[in-house]
Amino acid sequence: MDKRLTVALVAHDNMKHDLAEWVAWNWEKLLSHRLVCTGTTGRIVAETLMERRSKDAANSRFDITMLKSGPLGGDQQLGAMIANGEIDMLIFFWDPMSAQPHDVDVKALLRVATLYNVPTAINRSSADFLISSPLMAHEEYTPVLKDYTSYIERTLK
Questions:
Q1: How far apart are CA 136 and CA 100, in angstroms?
Q2: Is 75 known to be catalytic?
Q3: How far apart (Å, rounded) are the C-alpha atoms in residues 54 and 52?
Q4: Fewer CB near the terminus (10 Å): N or C of the chain?
Q5: Please, are residues 114 and 87 in contact by the beta-carbon 8 Å criterion?
Q6: Per-residue pLDDT tens for 131-140?
Q7: What would the mean pLDDT of 33-56 be, rounded to a whole number?
Q8: pLDDT at site 1
Q9: 3 state DSSP class of 64
Q10: 2, 18, 56, 75: which is the annotated catalytic residue?
Q11: Would you say the C-alpha torsion 28, 34, 40, 41 has a positive or negative sign?
């Protein structure tokens, strides 16, 4: 792999098992990148990678940063990292069937990811497409950011 990306991994409680399966399936690709996870998701991702690593490649190391739990501020921490240009990709397995007590935080996170044009997967299929993209490995890619200067400099009446 020619480049290392910073990949954020997040999952709602009912989707953590699905994300763990996805991580187990894609562990070799993920080991080549820096990972950032919120709360319990980070622990589950780390356990999954340790299990895979011990079975298949004992010398492989992984780079993982764990933030606070989403409802305890982890979503905002991740949003700040996106705004600072520190996240290259967001994989967020969110639960469409359960209301979340921190829905406003989730919406803000997805909004800032969209604002900064960060590739975002919200389910297993879209995560599969992102991680299998040639842009993940060999090609240089710089997202085009929309110029919001006119919005910032507008006069309010």
A1: 31
A2: yes
A3: 6
A4: C
A5: no
A6: 999 888 766 7
A7: 88
A8: 39
A9: strand
A10: 75
A11: negative
